[in-house]
Amino acid sequence: MTQTSTPHLVLVDGSGFIFRAFHALPPMTSPAGVPVNAVYGFTNMLSRLLREHAGSHLAVIFDAGRHTFRSEIYPAYKAHRPEAPEELRPQFALVRDATRAFNVPGIELPGWEADDLIASYARAVQAIGGTCTIVSSDKDLMQLIGNGVSMVDPMKQQPIGLAEVEKKFGVTPDKVIDVQALMGDSSDNVPGVPGIGPKTASALINEFGTLEAVLSAAPEMKKSKKREMLIEHAEAARISRRLVELACDVPLPVAIDELTVKEPEKETLAAWLENMGFRSLISRMGMATYAGTEAHRAARATAEASVNPTEAQADTGISETVTAPPYSGYETVRTAEALERWVAAAREAGLCAVDTETDGLDPLSAGIVGISLATAPGKACYVPLRHQGTLEEPAGEQLSPDDAITLLRPLMADASVLKIFQNAKFDLLVFDRAGLDFTDISPTDDTMLLSYVQSAGLHGQGMDELSALHLGHKPISYTDVTGTGRNKIPFAQVAVSKATDYAAEDADVTLRLWYALHPSMRANQCLALYEQIERPLSPVLAEMEKTGIAIDRAALSRLSEDFATRMAVMETDIHAEAGREFNVASPRQLGEILFDEMGLKGGKRGKAGAWGTDSSVLQDLVDQGHALPEKVLAWRQLAKLKSTYTDALLRQATTDDRVHTSFQMAITTTGRLSSNEPNLQNIPVRTEEGTRIRQAFIASRGKKLISADYSQIELRLLADAADIPALREAFTQGQDIHTRTASEVFGIPAEEIDSLTRRKAKAINFGIIYGISAFGLSKQLGISPGEARTYIEAYFTRYPGIRDYMERMREQARELGYVLTSFGRRCYVPGIHDKNAARRQYAERQAINAPLQGGAADIIKRAMVRLPRAIADAGLSARMLLQVHDELLFETSEDEAPRVAALVRDIMENAAQLSVPLVVETGIGNNWAEAH
Fold it and tell me: What keywords would UniProt list here (predicted)?
């Protein structure tokens, strides 16, 4: 570390590394009980840097605060980012203490981001002929690379140069800013141009040279969605460029010549390390002689053992350097003795991540091919069970599935060992089919749900996406090992070595995600939501999926034939209206008929040049009075019911004539469940066809179906949340809410309200929940927009609290980026700051509705968690079969049906305590329609 005439300045991105270390390392505490995992990782990195770097000058750069000049340019910049996790906050100051203990300058400047300081120091050292190495993997700093400025990824210890930048952005570093301005950055709320991704952005910049050149050329480009977006969002792109371009002229708080590398004062450093409880670092750095007397160290070690058991774990599971354990080097477990060792390791650790590999995507029919376990970051294994091997690599010795399950059963049932899954419901059902009853697997955690309760609507919850987001790691993909297209092979035919790399990594990533996500639960105030609703719901849904519901095959076959006959008649009618035959199912042919041949107005061509004919286009034509699109819409509705339900249900039914839908727990923004194969959420409720489909869902012989449906739950939540006395009174007294609303809004005595006036009030009541506009209400009621606006204004005049509630939700979404249900569920609203008025207004409607729809989802989930135990405690045999929005469906013996209905009603009505009563309507029947 000798000084040279031309300085080599090493700049450490301290703020960026704190977060990387925090999420990469397991929880650790100091002897004083303070969280220190990020401090430990940072200290390791700094120690290694001082040993190995070749710089003459060194500084660690920190962020001074969240508010910078970029917030003045664009208030939404980074505004959606949540506060730092509770366990991380005390570590910021300790990391600065670590920097001082190592005798390294720590630099920050209010009003500027760490990246701006790094850029300014890099340019300043260039100006005096020196070189600069930036220790960071932050993509925003890649614009600085070149002319003596380089980067090193601190986690991978790999250089980042021109080749790496071009691989990531498709351009040289001097054009990175322009690419980023076009593509935007959702993690920082940089808007960019919607629809422009990395490949398109780099292609445009390589073709035109600069952002301004691209925007200037846009009006002359071929008509396309890309052209429209570039023109419409040109200003957003210019603002984005100002946001992503680093400031290179920030006043330097410390002069470069004051940043020369200095040796740490060993007594000071040893005392600080000892105070933190980093015994292993004291030993590795050869500083034991500076850390006090032997007796004192022994006493301190004894004290630490009682309050800090995780450092020993970290010493064995985490590399002593800043680099996190690699995602490689996993073990293939082929014998009972080897698996027993992993079971013992899991028991010693007190937790393990578990993942299964199967020969199919349906857990109710898939066979288990292998199991992976992880007991610490970087420590994972794969247990192949049914691999067939290849000529080049035979499968070799494998445990049988039965033997593996036998060895794992005690671990899975061990209450002292936490089992961590990603999408636990899937793996629980896989284990169940393999002979391990999923009700015996406890306790469990689910990283998908840990993320979902903190970020619904912000991003997807798949493992690969979460890994990239929280760990900065892209896992091996399924297609990497199985291939694609004609070359795709079943997982059982994947070579065991490749399967081990893939499957064990999944378990490893799942465990690391748990370490990253679980500590932030309390800080984000969603621990109760997760532990009381989402986590215990997984086995409830698994049981429902396993049980399924019976169908009447004969009825479905008759219905399918009827739909086909009616569709044929409708096609003849459509052809007559069009003047010639054509394929009604072909959007292209329909577009040619409507817009080329009939010359109807309002058509728009898509990117491929074909006319758009989706339902919104056809509905606009219907509103203009055209008959053909109305007939096509009716035909499409019948075709959808036939393909989605009558035909599909017959294919999907198992040999016992039951269908088993799959409930998706982490798809919607609001917490609502969705279902697929079959999707039961979209069966029409009030049409003849929908009723006939429901009639085909039947009770088994000697059984009855019970439907339990919350009555007007979202309106009740609105009355409660907005604190509307008149609505609360109506619900409390059991009045007809729509009649009461009509009386209040239109000034008519309740006894004089006719059906049309009640219908108007009902449309307003439900429309308000979804932020309906005057135009939307006018279309729904068949009145003028002016008259609809009068109705809405009269409604708000009578119930001003509702307008106040709506504005509170909009403001909450603007300020936080999300809204909250009454149970603390975060529903993110990403488009709330969108420059496009239509998208922004849609987001505002989401903000108004999400707490109500999400609150309803929370309430019915609370009931679902309580019901199985309540039914069992009552000695009843009923089984919960389906959940569709606000309705639950049960099957029970005929003699128990009245008791079950009463019990279900009681549990559901008391699932939450509001200022208005929850009302549940129940029905009993031989089929779903009859019960509903």
Answer: DNA damage, DNA repair, DNA replication, DNA-binding, DNA-directed DNA polymerase, Exonuclease, Hydrolase, Nuclease, Nucleotidyltransferase, Transferase
Residues with Cβ < 8 Å from 42, sequence gap 6 or more? 14, 17, 18, 21, 95, 98, 322
Which residues, 6+ apart, have CB-to-CB distance to 508 below 8 Å? 327, 330, 353, 374, 377, 378, 379, 380
Q: Is 185 helix (H, G, I), strand (E, B) or coil?
A: strand
In tens, the pLDDT along 468-488 reads: 998 889 999 999 999 999 889
| b/e burial code for range 844-871 (CB count within 10 A of at least 16 → b) | bbbbbbbbbbbbbbbbbbbbbbbbbeeb
Tell me the one-letter amino acid at 725: P
pLDDT at residue number 80: 60
Q: How far apart are CA 630 and CA 717, in angstroms?
A: 36
Q: Kindly report the CATH class assigned to 558-659.
A: mainly alpha
The CATH classification of domain 8-162+248-258, taken from the options 3.40.50.1010, 3.10.20.310, 3.90.700.10, 3.30.70.100: 3.40.50.1010
pTM above 0.85, yes or no: no
Cβ neighbours, 10 Å, residue 241: 19
Q: How far apart are CA 44 and CA 39, in angstroms?
A: 9
Is 656 buried (19+), middle (13-18) or exposed (0-12) by CB count in 10 A? exposed
Contact between 491 and 499 under an 8 Å Cβ cutoff? The reply is: yes
What phi, psi does 75 have (nearest 5°)? Answer: -55, -25
| Residues 767, 771: Cα–Cα separation, whole Å | 6
Q: For residue 587, how many other CB atoms are within 10 A of its CB?
A: 16
Beta strands (DSSP E) in 43-190 are 57-61, 106-107, 131-135, 149-153, 158-160
pLDDT beyond 70 at 525: yes
CA distances from 869 to 173, 428, 708, 885, 898 (A): 61, 19, 17, 22, 18
Alpha helices in 53-146 (DSSP H): 69-73, 89-101, 114-127
CB atoms closer than 10 angstroms to residue 35:
21
Name the strand (E) or helix (H) holding 370: strand 368-376
Q: Residue 263 in contact with residue 103, Cβ under 8 Å?
A: yes
Give pLDDT tens digits for 479-517: 999 999 988 999 999 999 999 999 999 999 999 999 889
Q: Is 95 exposed, middle or buried (0-12, 13-18, 19+ CB in 10 A)?
A: buried
The domain defined by 331-548 carries CATH number 3.30.420.10: yes
Q: What distance, in Å, lies between the first and last C-alpha atoms of the chain?
A: 79
Residue with tokens 């199919």: 360
Rg over alpha carbons for the chain, rounded to the nearest Å, is 32
* 760-795: b (≥16 Cβ within 10 Å) or e: bbbbbbebbbebbbbebbbebbeeeeeebeebbeeb
Least confident of 22-26, 605-609, 693-697, 736-740: 22-26
- pLDDT tens digits for range 273-291: 988 888 778 877 777 666 6
CATH topology of domain 716-850: DNA polymerase; domain 1 (1.10.150)
pLDDT in tens, 712-753: 999 999 999 888 888 899 899 998 889 988 888 888 888 888
Q: How many residues does the chain have?
A: 932
Domain ranges of the chain: 8-162+248-258, 331-548, 558-659, 716-850
Is the predicted pLDDT of residue 159 greater than 90, yes or no?
A: no
pLDDT in tens, 122-158: 999 999 999 999 999 888 999 999 988 999 887 667 7
Give dist(CA 831, CA 817) in Å, integer. Answer: 9
Q: Are 275 and 30 in contact (CB under 8 A)?
A: yes
Q: What is the pLDDT of residue 304?
A: 34
Cis check: omega of the bond before 159, within 30 degrees of 0: no
Rounded distance between C-alpha atoms, residue 330 and residue 376, angstroms:
12
Q: What span, in angstroms and rounded, lies between the C-alpha atoms of 540 and 855?
A: 20
